[in-house]
Amino acid sequence: MEALTPRQIVAELDKYIIGQDKAKKAVAIALRNRWRRQQVTDDLREEIMPNNIIMIGPTGVGKTEIARRLANLAEAPFIKVEASKFTEVGYVGRDVESMVRDLVDLSVNMVKEDRMMGVEKEAENQAEERLLDMLLPPLQKKKKGKRAVNKEAEQEAEARWKRSREKLRTRLDDGKLDKRMVELELPSDRFPMVEILSPIGMEEMGINIQEIFGGMMPPRTKRRRVSIPEARKILAQEEAQKLIDMEKVIASAIERVENAGIVFLDEIDKIAGERVRGEVDVSREGVQRDILPIVEGSTVMTKHGMVRSDHILFIAAGAFHVSKPSDLIPELQGRFPIRVELESLTAEDFVRILTEPKNALLKQYTAMLKTEGVGITFTKGAIREIAQVADKVNTRMENIGARRLHTVMTILLEEIMFSVPDMEKKRVRITRKYVQEAMKDIVEDEDISKYIL
Ligand SMILES: Nc1ncnc2c1ncn2[C@@H]1O[C@H](COP(=O)(O)OP(=O)(O)OP(=O)(O)O)[C@@H](O)[C@H]1O
Ligand SMILES: [Mg+2]
N or C: which end of the chain has fewer CB within 10 A? Predict the structure, then answer.
């Protein structure tokens, strides 16, 4: 994990998220604290608990975005879970431990990919040798017993074979053989015949019956003809697999989850029951009680082994329109000591969101139109108008935050996106007037806007 300072973390988040300074600061401190914890002596380290955070704020103001970008920065295993999914009718057993298991799976993949990248060169070299073996099979060694007919002739043949192989290698590397096909033995889909239904409970322990039986049966393979470049990729992949030590990968993946994992618990407000009698809050409170041990720290059985959840960072988020954080059971509240409120976004924020982030909408549209050879520009007035339209619609109807910008932009540019491949003009300038014209009907007619935006 790279040790960014809180200030640097905020600066990185600023590249994608406008405003919300309090939330950024809180997550930056939480992240830095995990690094600090790693530096502390062993006995104390175990005592330091993560700064779990609750982000409170209306929809579409950047809660998920902050958590996602944070995880990217930390290169930490990160998953997003909707807390409300555990309350769904028909959800048997509320398998809340699945979030830890999913996190581990993800972490294993992350580490594996990482390791595979490390052995990429070596794997590629070995793949090349295997390809050459296919194209020019190695010489049969003469049986020991048989007297060599002619030692010199044999050496001669061997030297010739070596020369051919090197020649072939050059042609291969120059891409001269790319059109040729070779046959490869490929593993076919693991279990095509029957889906084995595992008894209830097995799945929960993370034991996968298919994997157990799958290992017992001979691997099913299938011969396939593939082009040389494709074969090179497949073989390199296979070689990389052989070169990495899966046991070490798993150990390191689990270590990462335990010390750096981040779980984003979205819609936490949906499981905070208001204290109304006779309501569904039995089930909501039930979910909270199920989640509690995981947040508090427990050992979860996964198919890769036991994983402790004590130091996983939990970031919860919710709009808390109806319920309040204080409606959560006290034990759970205690486990989320940090609360930050995210602000509603203003028209000014929208102007910045449209233009400033690395992935800003206007940058996206500009890049897309460029692929058609068209340059699009937006005047300052146009951008302000778009922001104001979005803001107006948000206040008149449901406030969906920055998501509104997506819908406004889609409508605004619909005609252009449709007809641009047939256009003669290679420059498009979006002015304030253009925006007003395009959005006129929608902004004026509340009924239409209800359906369209
Ligand atoms: N402050 C912001 N700066 C830049 N972009 C933002 C901001 N807030 C929201 N967005 C944009 O809006 C989209 C939705 O935001 P996000 O997913 O973070 O909402 P949310 O707060 O998690 O809402 P919900 O409560 O509905 O889950 C994001 O993909 C992002 O592009
Ligand atoms: Mg969200």
Answer: N
Which residue out of 10, 17, 63, 65 has the highest number of ligand 1 atoms within 8 Å of its CB and is therefore the one to mutate? 65
Q: Are residues 11 and 88 in the same domain?
A: yes
Would 248 be classed as within a structural domain? no
One-letter amino acid for residue 316 of the chain: A
**Tens digit of pLDDT for each residue in 107-148?**
999 999 999 999 999 999 999 999 998 888 888 765 555 565
pLDDT at 71: 85
**Long-range pairs, 231-236, Cβ under 8 A, ≥24:** 231/131, 231/134, 231/182, 231/184, 232/124, 232/127, 232/128, 232/131, 234/184, 234/186, 235/126, 235/127, 235/130, 235/131, 235/184, 236/120, 236/123, 236/124, 236/126, 236/127
CA 131/CA 124 separation, integer angstroms: 10
Q: Is 225 helix (H, G, I), strand (E, B) or coil?
A: strand
Which atom of ligand 1 lies at the shortest distance from residue 66's CA?
18
Name every residue whose Cβ is closer than 8 Å to that of residue 21 and which is 6 or more positions away in sequence: 10
As to burial, measured by CB atoms within 10 angstroms (0-12 exposed, 13-18 middle, 19+ buried), residue 271 is: buried
Q: Whose CA is nearest to atom 5 of ligand 1?
A: 17
* pTM for the whole structure: 0.79
Tell me what pLDDT residue 5 has.
Answer: 94
Show which of 324, 341, 358 is a domain's final residue: 341
Residues in the chain, pLDDT under 70: 1-2, 88-94, 141-149, 188-219, 274-282, 445-453
Burial of residue 213 (CB within 10 Å: 0-12, 13-18, 19+) is exposed
